[in-house]
Amino acid sequence: MSQEIIIAINPGSTSTKIAIYNRSGELASESIGHNQHELDKFDRISDQLEYRYTYLVQTVNAFLSGKDYKVVGVVGRGGIVKPLEGGTYKINEEFLTHATEGTYGEHASNLGSLLANRLKDEFNLENSYTVDPVSSGNMSEIAKISGVPGIVRIGRGHPLNMKMTARKIAKKQNIPFEDTNYVIAHLGGGISISLVQGGKLVDINDALLGMGPFSPNRAGAIPLRGIIQLCKEMSFDDVASLLSKNSGLKGYLGTEDLRDVLKMIEAGDEKAQLIYDAFVYQIAKEIGAYFAASKGKAQAIIATGGIAFNEKFITDLKSYVGSFTEFHTYPGENEMEALAEGAFRVIDNIEIAQKY
After folding, report:
1. Is residue 150 part of a domain?
2. Full residue range of the structural domain in which residue 298 is found
3. pTM of the entire structure?
4. Which backbone phi and psi does 107 adopt, to 5 degrees?
5. How far is CA 305 from CA 146, 199, 232, 269, 301, in A?
6. Confidence of residue 303 (pLDDT cuts 50, 70, 90)
7. 60 and 104 co-located in one domain
């Protein structure tokens, strides 16, 4: 009897990750690197679809060659689309249109749904799926209030990994996922801090532009007077690029790799020490704010993402927030596993697919 599998797809800025999963876990994976010079030939991210799809199909065929597999699902990382409830979605035409046109934002992850939808036809599948897109969550009405009528706080972060991590820690703590109350910090190129209650992200910062601590290359929340001045001196696109791509560690120190920053500190660089200290400090402050939002009842603070692998950083962060409640680390992004599990939950009728 053929082994039932799901193909998971996760596009990054210069890579496309592919993995094969059965219900027990990963069977194979590969990250296809894309030459930046080749990608620069495309005006928009969605224009890269055919280019990336060619490599995707080649890799998938190599995975499946000689194997007795039955593909029962194809799932792609969801991009920046309209604000959504969390969960697994069937990819429909409206979803594809918004991802293609970048209606709510341009991001490499927008290609996830486009690639998955194209690949499903190779296996005569009726549906393709995405799980917890970048703009998904269940922000409470109180969390959406900005302080300026007409401006609404939005959450754009890492719900896919956050919810996956919450499930893992809930199992470790023997708490039903639906009863969880966690503060989760995804620490990577972008940094998002969330409050997960009842298995839902009820509050999360905009990790791309405008809220939270500064990240390896993003500005986070900054003084409004400075923003107003920048907008007088630069175009909107230039300001957006500065704040979302060329700020944070990169802006101050010329590198967005925390390991390089720590080497600079070891060499006696006092500026690097100051910026690193501020980096830890701002993340700790944001975690503290979300812990307060839980009314001090969060069952755990969880650090995940690539930076969570760094033991010195975790030690320094715990010096601020480690005494609040249980502190757990679950390093890495875990997005491929989250995609596969979310698709299997719908295919196995454990959950009902959401409608976009």
Report:
1. no
2. 159-331
3. 0.84
4. -160, 145
5. 27, 19, 36, 26, 14
6. very high
7. yes
